[in-house]
Amino acid sequence: MMPSGDLLFFSDQQLQVACEVVLDMSGEEVSPDIVFMETEDSPSEDDDQWSMLESSPDSSHNSSSAESDQDESVSQEDLFSASEYVEDIYWNLRATEERFRPKPGHMDHHPQTLKNIRPITVDWLTRITTNLGLDTETLHLTINYLDRIFSNCRSVNLQDLTLIGTTALFIAAKHQSRNPPEAQEFVPQGGGYTKKELFEMEWRLLKTLNFSLSAPTSNNFLHIFMSICPVSETTQNLAVFLADLSLMDVDLLVRHDSSKVAATALFMANYRVNRENWPEDLERFSGYPVEDISECVDTMYKLELLHSELPLQAIRTKFTKSMSAVQCCSPSSPVCTASIYNSVF
Q1: CA angle, 143 then 251 then 174, to 5°
Q2: CB count, 10 Å around CB of 338?
Q3: Within 13 Å, how many C-alpha atoms sit on residue 335's CB side?
Q4: By CB distance 3.0 to 4.6 Å, which of 103, 134, 258, 316 could disulfide with 129?
């Protein structure tokens, strides 16, 4: 299904409203001027390069460019269920995850507006991925790409954010999906930018990302953990919800590895649904004793409390069919207070 133009594009009116909200909240007057400065890093010769891409944004693109070697790949669930390889896969991902994390303080050289608008962008991209029928991993990759782009660019301002966000999603969909949507589905029907501009931005973002697209995400690690220690559907839904929710907090993603965020999400879900402690098998496999995730648990618990009060509810809406699991374990519920976690540590 093609999203409407309104869904794919921040209008000038929406940008102006966002600027006014930031002014009301922070006292900082902001302007949606276009500034996008990328680094001069050249692409690396690694296994993440895409053979489908030409060497120039002016090169021809066609619908077949959306086809990739992903068509011949196995699903994430199939891969992680290969028990004889899952431990090697896990530790290989652990060895590489740090270089895919956003740089500490990477938002400091951007206007405060960008950090304030980031949760709105995550919420907006969540709605688009849901509307396009893209999977959770595509959303996680998109946010990873955005944060790394913000880390490596000197300045990104509001009017560029629509095109950058949509292009990051376009790249993630082609990298992750066996049958990604056509490029035209990422172009707003009412105008705003063209397909040619989408392809040009794709090339710029790929260079900024150094063509390194296979980032280990908390969603990756979460599925590995759940293949080692199967859980109920209710626990799984709540864990995935919490992992998705972590995307809203850039500081959490900077401070904690994706594997730790995944361990935290599963720990919180398992404890809240089943009142079970961190399983010994998972502690041994993950390398995370429960005390090592205590700080991340506290941060994620506070994030969930804050999110429940915000109008940005695309992630919660995404779990509508399983909302009974999320609602019955709401952080505002009397049985879900910080004390139940503090008693474990």
Answers
A1: 10
A2: 13
A3: 10
A4: 134
